Amino acid sequence: MSGTAVSLISGIPRSVPERGRRGECLTLPGGGHSFGCVDRLPFYQRAFSLRQYNAAFAIIAVNAFVFLLTNFTSPRLYTYLSLVPVLVVQQNWWWQVFTYMFVHANMWHILFNMLGLFFFGVQLEQRIGSSEFLLFYLVSGTVAGLISLGVFWVTGAYQVFLMGASGAVFAVLLAFATYYPHARILLFGIFPIRAPVLVVGYAAIEIFSMFGRVRGNVAHLTHLAGFLVAYLYIRIRLRIDPVRVFLDSRR
């Protein structure tokens, strides 16, 4: 996530409904299932049990540690940890589809991504639980990396260096807007905008930037892949339709 300052989020309920205990059912927005209905759910929809609500801060800490490591030790770490298609495919460095999301090019890069994760991720984690949030974040970032790898390889961008948490953070933004469709974000501390509108606006900008061949070192493809993976995850595992939630929030 880059270039946008989010200073305040409003419209979030003060009390967040607790996740149901085993055997109980809670109604979630958009037709989603309760995490308490464990026994009646297929394995890919079952919740985990960790409830510490600290995963977002742990992810931020890991990103900060890797940033310091890559900037104050060997520059070769960028090569090992970033996603470089030719190294993944020809050298079998498949760990890069996971590690790339913890690597950042400069201070502004990590600052904007971690601000987005802080503002949206902490609230989302409190809603769905730490383990579910961690799974969602890592799956979204990894699959977004795999999609980017495939497109880069097909288009001949073999030696591009892909790095940054943006794909996973964009996924978090979509999930946040799904669970808090009436939340308002103050852009630059001035302009109030509803969370679903922010998602649609970002998606439009990314599509225009990618197909309009806007110059720059921004991974628009990975951002859109993050949105796509998040949508599929929420629909399949959490059984919530973000599109329906967004449309219903307009009424």
- The structural class is mainly alpha
The count of helical stretches stands at: 10
By CATH, the superfamily comes out as Rhomboid-like
> Portion of residues in helices?
40-55%
What summary fits the major beta sheet? 3 strands, antiparallel
Q: What's the SSE pattern?
A: EHHHHHHHEEHHH
Q: How confident overall, as mean pLDDT?
A: 83
Low-confidence stretches: 2-7, 14-39
Rg, rounded, reads 18 Å
Account of the 3D structure:
There is one protein chain. With 251 residues, this protein is mainly alpha-helical. It has one domain (53-248): Up-down Bundle (Rhomboid-like fold), CATH 1.20.1540.10. 55% of the residues lie in helices and 5% in strands. It has 10 helices and 3 strands. The chain has a 3-stranded antiparallel beta sheet. Strand 2 and strand 3 (191-194) form a beta hairpin. The longest helix has 25 residues, at 130-154. The model is unreliable at 2-7 and 14-39 (pLDDT under 50).
Task: Provide a quick synopsis of the model.
This protein is mainly alpha-helical and 251 residues long. The chain has one domain (53-248): Rhomboid-like (Rhomboid-like fold), CATH 1.20.1540.10.
Can you give keywords for this protein?
globular; Rhomboid-like fold; three-stranded antiparallel β-sheet; mainly alpha; 251 residues; disordered N terminus
